[in-house]
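Working notes for the structural subgroup meeting. M.R. asked for a predicted model of this chain before we commit to crystallization trials. I am recording the input and output together here so anyone reviewing the notebook later can reproduce the run.

Input as submitted:
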Amino acid sequence: MAEKKDSATNDELILNILTKADVFTPEGGIKPSEYWAYRENVRIKYGLPECADKWDFPVSYIQKIEQLAKENKIEIRPKHEFQLFFEENKAGALTSKSVFRDNTIIAEQHQPDDWWALRARANQLSHEIVHALQNIMFPGMPDHIAEQEAYAYQQFNPGEIIYKSYSPEDIASWVNKTIPEWVATSLAVDNKLNQHDKIDE
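Returned structure, recorded in token form:
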């Protein structure tokens, strides 16, 4: 009962923050509260764990994603095993620390006692696991929709929303400017990487 109560309280807090941010939505833009509903639909659709604590408790989050990947027969392998691929695709390598190709999530490796590397890996997995599940459940999904879903889940999580709650205007800008810019950049990188059918190890 306590866990459900805490969850309900947290949902109420998030909606309160986003309702305040809605008034700063640019004309023709997306209200943060509506974007939150979209993000939650993405999370539920793919059966994803909440990633709000990926910065504070990266080990726990990484374990959840590794288990989810295992259940769906998705490989997770370290980036250094595919050095040739990233060297041949420097545009992608320079802007992307991780990638999903050929039913494999490729992410930076980490040491168990390297706190920053653990956080980086958790963040990378929170994006690439969406692409991996999209590939299984909705093969052929248009790239722009795939990136929109991945960034919504990865970036617009409760932890980030609460962190930015001091500035409702920034939240509205985040939804309507910052995240779309990340999506556009990622699409440009993917277009270059997609020129290669396979990843060479």
